């Protein structure tokens, strides 16, 4: 069985996690990112690191092929927001809900692809993972499915940091978030709200 220092679900283009990669440069790192042009960017942006594996997949509650929507590579510079590459989703409407005066995303800016969706346990089995020091999850509202499906009795995870702002819908938090925080507390995790977007669950 194998220990991973860092697992990132929603690695985007790799830039925002570079400090994390540096912190775990002597340990195994697993990056999950479904968007093809983001995967290419990760390889360029993290070129100096040789300790990471990229899985171009999505995660969910069952193993299947699912439609996945993301911002076209050509539209990112047009939309003038560096974070545009990070708003992929199983729901096209989730991407369109980001539309504002400063982010004029339209249907023409969105690309659909069919992609393999695995359960978290499939990933654990594939890479023989028995422990993870830090798990980062930023997947535009799909955090609930992933965290609900993780069997915390089968893999030892020290720290989990996940985005919570879209847990129960676009900029909504409610019953689903409460369900997951309750699950984490029952598995001996201390819950800390880091900011308006992220929660830290740390095992004690």
What global shape is seen?
A: globular
| Helix fraction by DSSP (H/I, runs of at least 4) | 25-40%
Radius of gyration: 16 Å
Please give the count of helices.
7
| Domain tally | 2
pLDDT < 50 stretches: none
Residues in β-strands, percent:
25-35%
Intertermini distance: 23 Å
Superfamily (CATH H level) name of the largest domain? Vaccinia Virus protein VP39
Assign the CATH class of the largest domain: Alpha Beta
CATH architecture of the largest domain: 3-Layer(aba) Sandwich
Major beta sheet, strand line-up: 3-2-1-7-8-10-9
- Could you tell me the number of beta strands? 10
From the helix content, strand content and strand pairing, which structural class follows?
A: alpha/beta
Largest sheet: 7 strands, mixed
What letter string, H or E per element, gives the SSE order? EHEHEEEHHEHEHEHEE
Mean pLDDT: 95
């Amino acid at each position: 069985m194998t220990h991973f220092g860092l697992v990132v679900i929603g690695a985007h283009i790799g830039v925002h996690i570079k400090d994390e990669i540096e912190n775990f440069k002597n340990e195994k790192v697993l990056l999950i990112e479904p968007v093809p042009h983001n995967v290419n960017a990760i390889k360029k942006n993290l070129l100096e690191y040789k300790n990471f594996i990229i899985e171009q997949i999505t995660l969910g509650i069952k193993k299947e092929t699912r439609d996945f929507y993301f911002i076209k590579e050509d539209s990112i510079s047009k939309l003038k927001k560096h974070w545009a590459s990070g708003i992929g989703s199983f729901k096209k409407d989730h991407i369109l809900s980001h539309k504002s005066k400063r982010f004029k995303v339209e249907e023409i800016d969105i690309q659909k692809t069919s992609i393999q969706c695995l359960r978290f346990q499939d990933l654990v089995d594939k890479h023989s993972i028995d422990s993870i020091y830090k798990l980062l999850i930023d997947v535009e509202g799909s955090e609930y499915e992933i965290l609900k499906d993780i069997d915390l009795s089968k893999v030892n995870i020290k720290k989990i940091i996940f985005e919570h702002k879209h847990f129960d819908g676009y900029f909504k938090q409610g019953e689903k978030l409460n369900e997951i925080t309750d699950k984490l507390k029952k598995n001996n995790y201390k819950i800390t709200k880091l900011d308006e977007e992220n929660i830290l669950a740390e095992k004690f």
